[in-house]
Amino acid sequence: MSDSTTVAEPAGPAGSPPGRTGLSPRQRRRLSLAIQYVLLLAAVALVASLADWTAIRQNFFKAEVAKETLPDLFTVALKNTVIFTLSGFALGFAFGLVLALMRLSSVAPYRWVSVVYIEIFRGVPMLLIFLIILFLPAAFPGFQFPFEPYGQVAVGLGLVAAAYMAETFRAGIQAVPKGQMEAARSLGMPYMRAMGSIVIPQAIRIVLPPIANQLVLLFKDSSLVFVLGLSASTVELTKFGSDLATDHANGTPLMIAGLTYLLVTVPASILVQRLEVRQAKAR
Questions:
Q1: Domain range spanning residue 148?
Q2: Count of the separate structural domains present in the chain
Q3: Taking the model in full, what pTM does it have?
Q4: Confidence band (pLDDT; 50, 70, 90) for 1?
Q5: Are 166 and 114 in contact (CB under 8 A)?
Q6: 7 in a domain, yes or no?
Q7: pLDDT grade, residue 146 (50/70/90)?
Q8: Residue 212 falls within a domain, yes or no?
Q9: High-pLDDT (> 70) share of the chain, %
Q10: What are phi and psi of 142, to 5 degrees?
Q11: Residue in 150, 121, 120, 152 with CA at minimum distance from that of residue 136
Q12: Residues 243, 77, 261: CA angle, nearest 5 degrees
């Protein structure tokens, strides 16, 4: 009988399972992150070395041209953008809620009308809606929007926003426990009163974050109203920056307009995120 010799396997790195060699999952993850950071820094360094910073400053950050945007940037362009956004949001909110109730109605024609409307206005670009609004007076002689162009903008933004808000409201209403409606009806409360007093307020609280996000999207989408041919007193931020950029043959006004959008949308987006976190905690 001969003695058998057992050869011990080499030990792997610290933290790795016995009998295995190579990097542990944590080490591989760290190495992967390090490589990604190195590649990102290399890309940034390459772009920075290739860019002509003097030309960029002269064409997009020229102080003399930036001064020309004030004070109309805030007193005219930003003010009109806010008015356009709020008016479109108000119309979209009210009409979207009606569409959601129609979508949930037991009356089939109401559901059909709601579904067709939502699919059309969610599938058609908003720019095309504004172009159609622009030609409506030609198709209907004597027709005129009230408070033009504010009425035109409110209708254009509101019609599209309503289609998206309708689906949001529908999801919120369906998320309210059915027992809420059943309890109200058992107390003798009419259906519409129970819906308006109990279900809809709860649904709005549920969908508040996505509705607030829709307001941010409308603020940006208001840039499409340039197709309506706005005057100097009714321009919004994008049109304002575009006109000044053309007058000065310089991109600084466009950069200023973009920074103004960020001045509004970034804090608003942070607020939406906090609302979402609060809603998640409340659940």
A1: 68-282
A2: 1
A3: 0.83
A4: very low
A5: yes
A6: no
A7: confident
A8: yes
A9: 92
A10: 90, -15
A11: 152
A12: 95
* Residue 227, both tokens: 């197709």
Predicted local distance difference test score (pLDDT) of residue 179: 87
Rounded Cα distance between 237 and 97, Å, is: 29
Residue type for position 156: G
| 156 vs 146: CA distance, rounded Å | 13
- At what angle are helices 208-221 and 150-175 packed, to 10 degrees? 160
Rounded Cα distance, 208 and 158, in Å: 18
pLDDT of residue 22: 73
Structure tokens at 59: 């064409």
Task: Judge whether 120 and 162 are in contact, CB under 8 Å.
Answer: no
Using alpha carbons, select from 209, 95, 238, 236 the residue that is nearest to residue 161. 95
The whole-angstrom separation of Cα 245 and Cα 252 is 7
Tokens linked to 196 = 């308006």
In a domain, 196, yes or no: yes
Q: What is the CATH number of the domain that holds 227?
A: 1.10.3720.10
* CA neighbours closer than 13 Å in the CB half-sphere of residue 194: 15
The reply to whether 134 falls in a domain is yes
Average pLDDT, the chain: 88
State yes or no: pLDDT of 51 exceeds 90: no
d(CA 90, CA 159): 11
Burial of 56 (0-12, 13-18, 19+ CB in 10 A): exposed
Give whole-number Cα distances, 128 to 122, 123, 143, 149, 177, in Å.
12, 11, 20, 17, 39
